[in-house]
Structure prediction request, 60 residues.
Amino acid sequence: MSPHRPPLLLVACAVVALLPLRPRAAPVQPAYPGDDAPVEDLLRFYNDLQQYLNVVTRPR
Prediction:
């Protein structure tokens, strides 16, 4: 083995450490809480839905 090549284990650990830094392809769509949900849950849903739509439909 050449002394200039990093060990395979070190490269594998670096790749695993950097995996969480990848951006997601798209955010998760918020789940509708139901018709009988409290007002606070509906407000949270509609705020999350607006944020989701802003991210999904933003110009690239």
